[in-house]
Write a structure and sequence with these properties.
The structure holds two protein chains of two kinds. By secondary structure, chain A is of the alpha/beta class. Chain A has two domains: 8-94 and 144-219, 3-Layer(aba) Sandwich (Rossmann fold), CATH 3.40.50; 230-266, no CATH class. Chain A is built from nine helices and 13 strands. Chain A has helices at 48-56, 99-109, 114-123, 139-151, 169-181, 196-202, 220-227, 246-255, 269-277; strands at 10-19, 22-32, 37-41, 63-68, 71-72, 84-87, 157-161, 188-193, 205-210, 213-218, 231-234, 240-243, 263-265. In chain A, helix 3 packs across helix 4 (139-151) and helix 4 (139-151) runs parallel beside helix 5. The radius of gyration of chain A is 21 Å and the shape is globular. Chain B is of the alpha/beta class. Helix content of chain B is 65%, strand content 7%. In chain B, strands 2-1-3-4 form a four-stranded mixed β-sheet. In chain B, a hairpin with a 2-residue loop joins strand 3 (96-101) and strand 4 (104-109). The radius of gyration of chain B is 29 Å and the shape is elongated. Chain B starts with a helix and ends in a 6-residue tail after the last helix. The chains are: A alpha/beta, B alpha/beta. The A-B interface holds A 56-58, 76, 78, 81-82, 84, 86, 88-97, 101, 104-106, 108-111, 133 and B 2-3, 5-7, 9-11, 13-14, 17-18, 183, 186-189, 191-198, 350. Chain A: It comes from Nocardioides caricicola. Chain A: It is found in: Cell membrane. Chain A: Pfam families: ABC_tran. Chain A: GO terms for molecular function: ATP binding.
Chain lengths: 283, 353
């Protein structure tokens, strides 16, 4: 479907950014179709944020180019800004405002009505916390508010930089429900994360990044499939069967009546990372 | 316009809800005003306590015109016991005991308070001289007329209101700019605003407007408190203090920007602003007049923008100078603001790292 489009939502060619001796982003190319949910996955320091900030138009790349919705992002493109929504790594709030005042302020910057902003507050589950100051919100609530502020003007393309970083597992899972719905309306979403499970659960396609380079970019299923890793079947009694033909093996187990309590583990993105870099994934 | 109002509202709310900022912008300088206004409100020497012993006709039958002066200078009590009266003077309960021996007025006074002693001797001498002239029946050949000149003899509140107001505005403008720049940089709000369809002009305009509004509120409070509690009297062109204060605010915001640009944390920025503004307040006559300071210090103080702000404010608010007196200081402050802003812009970084 994406191939039918004339213009990709995001088109990145050979982006490079160097800090001193460090090539933070090293010749990255990336095409994201409209309506796609893309996860950029990599350990800390892989260059995810720098890449994202260049695509958003916050940083001038040393070389290469980036365009969003067919428009160049650098220098600051006033025509593009109302069409993109951003959530930066830190919680970028006005100090000492309540959640409602916060989103109303951002709504005003984009010329959006307050009622619409209140709807977003409702949608991210913060209606009850509307009167609380941003300093008094929990980490998860602050991230929800931050995401609502990024989406308040219904942008066509959304960039979320590690929205679940520093959240406890429970709050992280809660946020997934919200995140998985935000590209429903045909919105394009780019999200960086250093959590494998998050990329796998949310993204249509995942770009795995390390040392400033994108190693692979494909759907999670295709990435795992290409890995050609054997499937591990763990039986109730602890016996582990490793096989490349799981369907055949499971049929055999069914005949033996040993299917109860069986766990089937196919390859994960973690295996993909190990396969690509030769080292274990450390978020 | 919507964006401008929204940003201004957000910044203003953020300031009003910051108790520390409000304290240092308004309450703290006001404490100094009340303190100095109260401490130095009565700079004239109090009345001289005089005990009149027995019958002193010189004091009883004062010549016309002399009784007002006498009343204003002396607080008179009467006694018939000279020894007791002198004992009271010795103890400090009274300043002078007078008795009349024939045609001679005898005054027993202490020199504990040289000012009062001088006044006592002078006033009694004048009283005797005046009476001498009066009894000749001739009109005096020479007369004296006194007029006070409003300058160094400004009363405490007249002097301190403009100076402390200048310091208060300098402080809140510099702190506000420094803390905003640092805070917004750290939370990446600067970056976030860069990605919103709002111009730098609008963002800066909103921040400046709020600081100017705070400065004018400070002015209203200072003048209000000065006038209500301490008889502050403004002179003709006092309204020129408004544009002067606006330019002063811009000048100290630029100093705050510089402090914000060269530091890495919000605390560091506020400390740097304090480091620049507080010594400047001492050297610019906000807390005490500089007349007694060494010449090199007075010369140096002329470089400081706060000195020019204070001088301009004193000139138009209480010295009765014409409105044009504020133009020089305004020009100096404006040039200072432009130069420092350019330096701060060169040192500006989007991020702390």
């Amino acid at each position: 479907m994406a191939a039918d489009r004339v213009v990709n939502a995001i088109e990145v060619t050979d982006l490079t950014m160097t800090y001193g001796d460090l090539r933070a982003v090293d010749g990255v190319g990336l095409s994201v179709a409209e309506g796609e949910f893309v996860g950029i996955l990599g350990p800390n320091g892989a260059g995810k944020t720098t890449l994202l900030e260049m695509i958003e138009g916050l940083r001038k790349p040393d070389s290469g180019s980036a365009s969003v919705l067919g428009l160049p992002v650098w220098p600051r493109n006033a025509a593009l800004l109302p069409r993109i929504g951003v959530q930066l790594q830190a919680s970028s709030f006005f100090e000492r405002l309540t959640a409602r005042e916060q989103i109303h302020t951002f709504a005003a910057l984009y010329g959006v009505a307050r009622a619409h902003a209140d709807e977003w507050l409702e949608r991210v589950g913060l209606a009850e916390k509307a009167g609380a100051r941003v300093e008094d919100l929990s980490g998860g609530q602050a991230q929800r508010l931050s995401i609502a502020c990024a989406l308040v003007h219904d942008p066509e393309v959304v960039f979320l930089d590690e929205p679940t970083a520093a959240l406890d597992p429970q709050a992280r899972r809660n946020l997934w429900d919200l995140l998985s719905g935000i590209n429903d309306a045909g919105r394009t979403v780019v999200l960086t994360t250093h959590y494998m499970d998050e990329a796998e659960a949310l993204a249509d396609r995942v770009a795995i990044m390390d040392h400033g380079q994108i190693l692979v970019f494909d759907t999670p299923a295709a990435l795992v499939q290409r890995l050609d890793a054997p499937t591990r079947i763990t039986l109730a009694d602890g016996e582990v069967i490793t096989t490349r033909e799981p369907t055949v093996e499971i049929a055999r187990l069914a005949e033996l009546g040993r299917l109860d309590g069986v766990q089937v583990q196919t390859g994960t993105l973690e295996d993909v990372f190990l396969d690509l870099t030769g080292r274990e994934y450390r978020a | 316009m919507t964006a401008f109002l929204a940003l201004s509202g957000a910044i203003l709310r953020g300031f009003v809800r910051d108790r520390t900022a409000v304290f240092f912008a308004v309450v703290f300088p006001l404490m100094f005003l009340v303190l100095f206004g109260g401490l130095f409100s009565d700079q004239s020497v109090g009345k001289v306590d005089m005990i009149v012993v027995g019958d002193v006709s010189l004091v009883e039958d004062l010549p016309a015109g002399a009784d007002d002066t006498f009343e204003a200078t002396f607080e008179v009590t009467r006694s018939d016991d000279l020894d007791d009266a002198i004992a009271q003077v010795r103890k400090g309960d009274a300043d002078v005991a007078v008795e009349q021996q024939g045609d001679t007025l005898v005054a027993h006074y202490t020199r504990t308070d040289p000012a009062k002693a001088g006044i006592t001797a002078g006033a009694l001498q004048a009283l005797v001289d005046g009476t001498n002239v009066a009894v000749t029946g001739q009109p005096p050949t020479y007369s004296l007329e006194v007029e006070s000149v409003e300058d160094d003899s400004l009363s405490a509140i007249q002097y301190y209101t403009p100076g402390l107001l200048g310091w208060a505005v300098a402080m809140s403008a510099a702190f506000g700019a420094a803390a905003t720049l640092q805070g917004w940089r750290q939370s990446k709000l600067l970056r976030r605003l860069q990605l919103a369809p709002v111009s730098t002009r609008t963002v800066v305009g909103a921040r400046v407007s709020v600081t100017v509004a705070v400065a004018l509120t400070q002015m209203a409070i200072f003048i209000g408190v000065g006038a209500l509690l301490f008889d502050l009297t403004l002179t003709g062109a006092w309204w020129m203090a408004v544009p002067l204060l606006v330019v002063g605010t811009l000048c100290f915001m630029s100093i705050g920007l510089l402090a914000g640009a060269i530091t890495k944390t919000q605390e560091g920025a506020v400390n740097a602003a304090n480091f620049l503004v507080l010594p400047m307040a001492f050297l610019s006559g906000s807390f005490f007049p500089l007349e007694g300071a060494p010449q090199w210090l007075q010369t140096f103080s002329n470089v400081l923008p706060l000195k020019h702000l204070n001088d301009g404010m004193l000139d138009v608010m209480v010295r009765g100078e014409p409105w044009t007196a504020a133009l020089g200081p305004m020009l100096y402050l404006a040039v200072f603001a432009v130069v420092v802003t350019l330096v701060a812009a060169r040192l500006f970084r989007w991020e702390t790292t």
